[in-house]
UniProtKB/TrEMBL annotation:
Pfam families: DUF2180. InterPro entries: UCP037465_Znf. This is DUF2180 family protein. It comes from Streptomyces collinus. The lineage of its organism: Bacteria, Bacillati, Actinomycetota, Actinomycetes, Kitasatosporales.
Length: 69
């Protein structure tokens, strides 16, 4: 699988290391961002969050969109 952002930059030799959890495109080690995600489970009428966060991969574009406020 090839990194989508590298293909857009006319670099076709870069292998993707993960798939963006937001848009589903492949991302290489330069364009991928690993972020923490809280894991919640339903407990009664509310939610309980685990002490250890999970991780998820997002591409550079989706990371910029999520963090732009």
């Amino acid at each position: 699988m090839r990194c989508y952002d590298c293909l857009q930059e006319a670099r076709s030799d870069t292998t993707g290391i993960g798939v963006c959890s937001r848009c589903g495109l492949a991302a290489c080690e330069n364009h991928a961002r690993v972020r923490q995600a809280q894991v919640a489970r339903q407990v009664g009428m509310g939610a309980s969050y685990g002490r250890i966060p999970a991780r998820r991969v997002v591409c550079h574009t989706c990371d910029m969109a999520e963090t732009a406020h």
